[in-house]
Specification:
Helix content: 55-70%
Distance between the termini: 138 Å
CATH architecture of the largest domain: Alpha Horseshoe
Number of helices: 37
Structural class: mainly alpha
Strand content: 5-15%
Number of domains: 6
Largest sheet: 5 strands, parallel
Strand order of the largest sheet: 4-3-5-6-7
CATH topology of the largest domain: Serine Threonine Protein Phosphatase 5, Tetratricopeptide repeat
CATH class of the largest domain: Mainly Alpha
């Protein structure tokens, strides 16, 4: 009996062959085109292994432009659906991202290709359909097509294209206003008139300063002025800009708006989102309109600086423009990341700090005022450094028409600004008391206490909770101070140099109140708050502050400290004030003790060194020998008993090394010489014992202190007789 296969068997065999074949074919016969088809197919039938193989073959076999050609001509016009599905598959996510990135790079390169732009401009004069397609491609090129479009307008031999070019520029809209405005003043009369009309039709007021500059310029052609003035009036009327505002003032306003955009992060028209970089347009005699790419973080500042510079060229007495140039130039440098360069910065310009110091205190006050309002620590430091190098007492503390920024800096949340502000004010040695002068020495005292140690404030529900939370922060390497209310810890907060974290297990209503109280306390306003609450209170706090609040971290309370440590670390990471490292801490402390010594030595009538006595006494226990020396020297000049007693305690501490005790004994002698003996009988007995048991330089220092304290000469006689 013959063997046969039923028809359904043939069908099944065929299906199996069809499914299996592509995996084998892809090894020898797969082309880039078929790889693209297979990638889409396998993603959609959920075969990620085969899709991955096809995508990899495709990426390895073509360049970016070839890839774009294959995709645009392929049979999957809805390939975005493929990408969306593939992104959700772990094994395909990376290769899909590579495909998308290369396609995007090819699109950008193609849309901005000068030859393609040139061809598209010529196509504008062809059929309606061809013109429509060319217009869309030029719009895709955006501002990068403007140089060639402007070159066409300049060329009278290509006047047949002018109407089409003008129409395209209007359609391109706001994105082209900046490069067109830059080119406007450099063009011949006919082209300038045409561009002025384009700018008026687009209706974006960013062009106003450039238009008004030409209206004001005496050399502007009369016919050109008439057209430009009409465009200026149209834009000014729509934007509500006064007709009597000068071009310099308008450039200043534009620059201020750009600087504000850089502060708030508001998008700026013309930013190249495809390449994440700024675009600066310039017009040169040799090349015409060209662009300079600048790193994204400094784009707003470069624009603000350049518009301020233009305002100054039009009116060199415009002080606000100089202030804007100084602050935008300094912030530009601060925001420039390592390894990045600002190719737009004029080669003959010096570094920003040069101009800050040359400009003098009045403009520096403007820079500092803006930095403090924006919370810009680095810019504030730039201004304070320049003020310290150039300004005398009167210039530092007497600013006409507004609150003194340097005095406000004494209450700035970030210690890196607060301390230098105090240093500058102390170093000027004022002879007359001024408003706020009483705040300088306390800031120096804060700086004297500064170490790389972090401090946490605990506000707890009861004593047990306070002790538990103090142990928690101690385990994370922080020093904790605790209480049941803010009032309980106010005095301790006054002593420490700053607050790095607030931890509370109080109810949600108390957390809300605590948040508000810390906001107005300059030492605590930047410190994150870790709220340890019950499940129901999490929703209450999230509703009040939102889950994205930068200061507040809300988590479930737990008796297990190990469960809470990650929350502590998360909260500390949110501190908006930069941490002080050991090198910075010693620099701050040393400068503070130097200035306190100067204040005490001069017996300043403006600054009261006695306000720093608690900090100076505490500094005698510092691990840093230079700080101990300095504090002892200052205390020797402070005419209060607790100063001499503290130095005596330190000098007679047997746990200290001989060299350090010798220095402290000399300070004790100086203190007694300056203010008379104020030590106790206990100190006298210990000093006499030290004299009897010590030798060499230590013995001499102890004897000097004995003499300065006017101790009985019988002690000397007794020693001589016994010897």
């Amino acid at each position: 009996m013959p063997t046969y296969i039923r028809p359904c068997g043939y069908a099944l065999l065929a299906i199996l062959l069809l499914v299996a074949a592509p995996a084998a074919w892809c090894q020898d016969e797969q082309t880039p085109v078929s790889s693209w088809v297979d990638y889409n197919h396998y993603v959609r039938i959920a075969r990620p292994d085969l899709a991955l193989a096809s995508a990899q073959v495709l990426l390895d076999s073509v360049n970016d432009e070839q890839l774009l050609d294959i995709v645009e001509a392929g049979e999957y016009p809805d390939y975005d659906r493929t990408f969306q599905r593939a992104e959700k598959i772990e094994t395909l996510a990376q290769v899909t991202m590579q495909l998308q990135q290369r396609l995007q790079a090819a699109r950008i390169k193609r849309s901005r290709d000068p030859d393609r732009i040139s061809a598209d401009i010529e196509t504008l004069a062809q059929s309606l359909r061809a013109r429509r397609n060319a217009t869309e491609r030029l719009r895709a090129a955006g501002q990068f097509a403007v140089p060639q479009l402007v070159n066409v307008l300049i060329d009278e031999k290509r006047s047949r294209l002018h109407p089409y070019v003008l129409a395209v520029l209007v359609e391109m809209g706001r994105e082209v206003v900046y490069p067109l405005s830059v080119a406007l003043s450099q063009l011949e009369p006919t082209a300038a008139q045409q561009l002025a009309q384009v700018l008026a039709e687009i209706g974006y007021p960013r062009a106003l300063p450039y238009l008004r500059e030409l209206v004001e310029r005496p050399t502007t052609d009369a016919d050109v002025r008439q057209v430009i003035e009409a465009a200026d009036n149209m834009l000014a009327s729509a934007a509500g800009v006064p007709s009597d505002a000068g071009s310099a003032e308008l450039f200043l306003t534009l620059g201020q708006n750009l600087y504000e955009a850089g502060t708030t992060g508001r998008p700026i028209e013309g930013f190249d989102t495809a390449k994440n970089q700024g675009v600066i347009w310039v017009f040169t005699d040799d090349s015409g309109l060209v662009f300079i790419p600048v790193p994204a973080p400094i784009y707003a500042d470069v624009l603000a600086m350049r518009t301020a510079h233009r305002a100054l060229k039009l009116n060199d007495n415009l002080d606000q423009a100089l202030s804007l140039l100084l602050m935008s130039n300094a912030r530009r440098e601060n925001r420039l990341l390592d390894g990045e360069a600002d190719l737009s910065y004029p080669s003959n310009w010096k570094e920003p700090q040069f101009y800050l110091e040359m400009a003098g205190p009045h403009r520096l006050h403007d820079v500092l005022d803006r930095a403090l309002r924006d919370g810009d620590t680095l810019l504030a430091l730039d201004a304070i450094t320049a003020l310290g190098a150039t300004a005398g007492t009167d210039a530092l503390i007497n600013r006409e028409g507004t609150a003194q920024p340097l005095l406000r800096a004494l209450s700035y949340p970030d210690r890196r600004v607060r301390f230098p502000a105090g240093f500058v004010l102390a170093a000027t040695r004022p002879t007359d008391v001024f408003e706020g002068s009483q705040r300088v020495v306390p800031v120096l005292a804060e700086a004297l206490r500064q170490t790389d140690q972090q401090f946490a404030v605990i506000i707890a529900t009861d004593d047990d909770a306070r002790n538990r939370l103090l142990a928690l922060v101690k385990d994370t390497g922080m020093v904790g101070i605790g209480g049941l209310t803010m009032e309980d810890v106010v005095d301790q907060i006054h002593i420490i140099p700053g607050v790095d974290l607030v931890v509370t297990d109080r109810p949600a209503s108390d957390v809300i109140d605590l948040y508000r109280k810390t906001t107005v306390n300059y030492k605590m306003s930047l410190a994150p708050i870790l709220a340890l609450v019950s499940p129901g209170e999490i929703n209450t706090l999230n509703a009040e502050f939102g889950q994205e609040d930068l200061r507040l971290v809300v988590t479930l309370d737990s008796s297990d400290a190990e469960q809470l440590k990650p929350a502590v670390e998360q909260a500390v990471a949110r501190n908006r004030g930069e941490p002080i490292d050991a090198k910075q801490a010693i620099a701050f402390a040393q400068r503070a003790v130097e200035l306190l010594q100067d204040i005490a030595g001069r017996q300043s009538s403006v600054y009261n060194v006695h306000d720093a006595t608690p900090a100076l006494v505490q500094a005698l226990s510092d691990d840093r020998r230079k700080i101990v020396h300095g504090a002892a020297n200052v205390l020797a000049m402070v005419p209060v008993p607790e100063a001499q007693l503290a130095v005596a305690d330190a000098a007679l501490d047997l746990k200290r090394g001989a060299a350090l005790r010798r220095v402290l004994l000399n300070s004790l002698a100086a203190c007694a010489t300056n203010h008379g003996p104020q030590v106790t009988d206990h100190h006298r007995a210990k000093l006499l014992d030290l004299i009897q048991k010590s030798k060499g330089k230590l013995a001499i220092a102890a004897a000097r202190a004995h003499g300065a304290l006017a101790e009985p000469t019988s002690n000397v006689v007794e020693m001589l007789i016994s010897e």
